[in-house]
Write a structure and sequence with these properties.
It is a single chain. The longest helix has 19 residues. By secondary structure, this protein is an alpha+beta fold. The chain has a 7-stranded mixed β-sheet. It has 3 domains: 88 residues, Sandwich (Immunoglobulin-like); 68 residues, no CATH class; 357 residues, Deoxyribonuclease I, Chain A. Helix 11 runs parallel beside helix 12.
Length: 551
């Protein structure tokens, strides 16, 4: 008999639901609830490893010298490496002030919180990354099938025991148990902020052009593929929250909470799409498509893994009309002969784009000849910082593909992009301005061989960045006043800036609401992203749009 939980890492306020099945030579079958008895337990420790500075966070770091003592010094627990470093000067003073003590000495002074002295006061050498209190006892907290964690469970592990109450006569009772990770407090909810029109709706003609009866929301999110989430790259993130088992549940919870009609994800491994995201999102009414990059990566687990872009849409809202797949490497092969060998190699990137045409279900036509359709492109552009001309070429190639497929159909275009390009870069400029000058600083040293293949203007209807409207919300201070884009959409230890965007056809759609952005404090609270709260090195972007009625 085996029990599985819908949440391996529970969080306060979200119900844990088990499925218990019986395995035999004939296969496995789910045991009916009326044949089972359930008991829930909490591992009640004498003390929870809670951060001394942030009481809503579980401690993941501890002063090693304090840990050696057989006493849990509350002031030695910290929720992140940054938190530990920020408090190091105060903690060091306590080390210096403390007399040299043995473990036995400390036991004799249980009212003291001083640490023993150290021969060297190097904050990094004193880090204990396994700040977990293991002693304690299991206390019964429930006897129903499901369990709803409360704030009392925060920081503790839970255990479910399931006992088969009845089998055929002569067979023994069968039981199983399953334990969870520590119960966490979910990150603060990110809310949608209404966008105020430029004239505050004082112009009746402007208001009348907006079709308020039908709106839809689009989410774009680079979720950080597991094959990229290595301890060497993200050493500041606790291993327990960097592993895919934890991150997958946290990402899914976050994505479901946003409740978007269209979801565009980047860095989605093919196996995770098939085995996790598609089944989980399918259960709540989504259909999805995945396109892998053209090359697999060899992982530390000694296997080859494909990752790429995945687009999901709510079946009650949209139907799929058509899809287009774009492989930049295949297109580059057609022009490789005209550039030098070094540039040819730099163009042979395995990046891809996935484009879908969706039609709204049960929607009144925008006009006698036009239904509510949207074209959504999901793209992840090359990350190579040395080849900005290649980024521009990839973006231009995508736009050419969109021009061929939708330019003459009057269908609104949305581009959900990890552009790996900053605001006002050549790639960003081409999208939002419709053209880019050869005198742009990123193009002045571009070889002549590739210049002739760069798309420097496009024929799509004018595109705008959805978040350029964010300055007209109550959360507008999160926008860079110079670029009119978010201050950052990715925040790692060495890089914090904006490279993710949602672009849209400005003449056919209007932005109604935008998902609030995270502030700098959220980014550095646990040093950087990913963190125990936010499981990607990027943040999600989301916009709600309305169709504009024809003039």
């Amino acid at each position: 008999m085996q029990a599985e939980l819908n949440l391996e890492t529970p969080y306060v306020g979200c119900e844990i639901i088990p499925i218990v099945s019986l395995h035999s030579k004939e296969g496995s079958k789910v045991i009916p609830d009326d044949k089972l008895k359930f008991n829930w337990y909490r591992l009640q420790n004498q003390e929870r490893p809670i951060c001394c500075m942030h009481p809503t966070q579980i401690a993941t770091f501890q002063c090693r010298d304090c840990s050696v003592l057989e006493k849990h010094v509350k002031e030695s627990f910290h929720c992140s490496l940054k938190c530990y470093h920020d408090q190091w000067l105060n903690h060091r003073k306590r080390h210096i002030a403390a007399p040299s003590q043995t473990t036995a000495d400390v036991v004799d002074h249980e009212s003291d919180y001083d640490c023993s002295c150290c021969s060297a006061f190097d904050k990094d050498s004193l880090i204990n990354k396994n700040a977990e209190i293991v002693h304690g006892s299991w206390v019964k907290v429930g006897s129903s099938k499901t369990y709803l964690p409360t704030i009392k469970d925060f920081g503790y592990r839970l255990k479910l025991e399931a006992v088969a109450a009845f089998f055929s006569e002569g067979k023994p009772r069968v039981h199983t148990e399953v334990k969870t990770n520590h119960v966490i407090i979910p990150p603060p909810r990110r809310y949608m902020f209404p966008v105020t029109p430029l004239d505050g709706f004082s112009n009746f003609k402007l208001e009348s052009k907006i079709c308020f009866t039908r709106s839809f929301s689009v989410l774009s999110y680079n979720i950080l593929a597991d094959l990229c989430a290595t301890p060497s790259r993200y050493s500041y993130c606790p291993a327990s929250t960097l592993n895919w088992q934890y991150r997958s549940q946290n990402l899914l919870r976050e994505i479901i909470r946003y409740d978007a009609d269209v979801i565009c994800l980047q860095e989605v491994q093919h196996d995770h799409f098939e085995e996790f995201f598609m089944p989980k999102l399918g259960e709540i009414g989504y259909s999805g498509i995945h396109k892998s990059k053209t090359s697999a990566l060899f992982t530390s687990k000694k296997d080859y893994v494909f990752e790429g872009c995945a687009t999901f849409f709510r079946l009650s809202k949209f139907r799929l009309i058509k899809k287009y797949e774009l492989e930049f490497k295949r297109t580059a092969q057609k022009i490789a002969w005209s550039v030098d060998a070094e540039k040819s190699r730099s163009m042979m990137k395995d990046n891809i784009a996935l484009t879908v045409i969706l039609e709204a279900i049960k929607a009144e036509p925008v006009s006698d000849t036009l239904n509510h359709r949207i074209c959504v492109a999901n793209v992840h552009v090359s990350a190579d910082p040395e080849n900005t001309d290649v980024k521009l070429w990839q973006v231009g190639t995508l736009i050419e593909d969109l021009e061929r497929n939708v330019a003459h159909s009057n269908i609104p275009v949305l581009i959900c992009a990890d552009l790996n390009s900053l605001p006002r870069s050549a790639a960003h400029t081409l999208v939002v301005n419709g053209r880019v000058d050869l005198k742009h600083e990123e193009l002045v040293n571009t070889p002549d061989g590739i210049i002739e293949h760069l798309k420097l203007s496009h024929k799509l209807l004018p595109l705008a960045s959805a978040y350029s409207s964010f300055s007209r919300t109550k959360n507008g201070d999160m926008i860079d006043s110079d670029t009119k884009e978010p201050r950052f959409t990715t925040a790692t230890l060495y890089f914090r800036n904006t490279i993710d965007y949602i672009f849209y056809t400005e003449g056919l759609l209007t932005v109604k609401n935008l998902l609030e952005l995270l502030d700098e404090e959220s980014a550095i609270k646990h040093t950087a992203f990913p963190s125990p709260l936010w499981s990607s090195d990027h943040i999600a972007l989301m916009s709600e749009f309305s169709w504009k009625s024809p003039s």
